Predict the structure of LysR family transcriptional regulator.
Amino acid sequence: MTGSEASPSFRLAYVPGVTPSKWVRIWNERLPDVPLALLQVSAADAAGVLRDGGADAAFLRLPVDRTDLSAIPLYTETTVVVIPKDHVMAAVEEVSAAELADEIVLHPLDDTLDWERPPGRPAFERPATTADAVELVAAGIGVLVVPQSLARLHHRKDLTYRTLSDVPESRVALSWPEEKTTDLVEDFIGIVRGRTVNSSRGRAQDRPERKDKRPEAGGARRKPAAGGTAGKATGRTAAKGSRGGAGGSGKSARGASSGGAKGAKRGKPRRRS
């Protein structure tokens, strides 16, 4: 590498609620010479960061326009509703979407949760961020529907959350620009998919060549090691020869053995009655 060439690095973006620490640790173990830089972005901005070249890959929430982005779905999260602890819905473990009909449901601008609220529900100006929406919930302005990890991330003593049924779960995926599927992106895909260190890249040039154990046509066969396979082969050859090898030695041996046995039996004196 010349002095003008920059050292390789990998930029990983992630949305709030996603914890990439496990994959980052494995990356640092396998590629210690390639620094990994983390960049937290809002759910609404994650795809744009990838398209603008601000990150090589990103953990984001689906849906995402896959026209120019590739995505590997990883896991799903339960959708919950964040409410004050003294709210009437805090008395139950699960809330249906229909039970939010009379509630002001906050929908932050940085949220990409894919669910349709029934018509007729009270409207409210959208807060800029999830953190702003949480503040409004605490003030008794409305309730907030988010993935469970975000409810935990913005935990407050005066708030709680309940599982929201009848709505889609939040899906987390690893995404990257399709035209920029670099070797380092392939490395990270391998780590996320749980490949071992020997197969993490999955590129042909990184895989060891397959050794063909069969001898080439016209080539000499490999001699067995002394005292091991050779001994077994010699023993099998000798046994085969004794059973019927060249010169009829095997047959003669069987005849002699058989005849001797029969002769010994016939020569045994009979017992007198």
Remarks:
- Residues 10-76+171-202 form a domain with the D-Maltodextrin-Binding Protein; domain 2 fold (CATH 3.40.190.10).
- The chain is about 25% helix and 20% strand.
- Residues 157 and 224 are 75 Å apart (CA to CA).
